[in-house]
């Protein structure tokens, strides 16, 4: 099992990719779908050619590693619970592929996303 320094890390199953930086997952034993927004990156919009390529690449990576995936949600800095850190309808976090690779870092290394420094607007 992956052991990040802080936060919640659980095995997950991918339901679908909305785009390269938003992945819908479910947890073992549950049919509830959670949308995970990959932290710290911005991928091209899904209606662009670059966005379509990035999404296809992510789908390939996640399909190949389907039994080695985990979702990681960082511990909130000031919130009282993890779900208080929503960005639109998504939870900000990351997907671990195996025990040492984060999907966001893989996208950056492949040149399919850029690092994001802007803070997303929170809604409840």
Task: Report the helical percentage.
Answer: 10-25%
Counting DSSP E segments of at least 2 residues, the number of strands comes to 10
Distance between the termini: 31 Å
Tell me the fraction of residues in β-strands, as a range: 25-35%
Q: Globular, elongated, flat, extended or rod-shaped: what is the shape?
A: globular
Radius of gyration: 14 Å
How many domains comprise the coordinates? 1
- As residue ranges, the low-confidence spans are none
Q: What is the structural class? A: alpha+beta
Q: Please name the CATH topology.
A: OB fold (Dihydrolipoamide Acetyltransferase, E2P)
User: What's the level 1 CATH class?
Assistant: Mainly Beta
Order of helices and strands: EEEEEHEEEEHE
| Largest sheet features | 8 strands, mixed
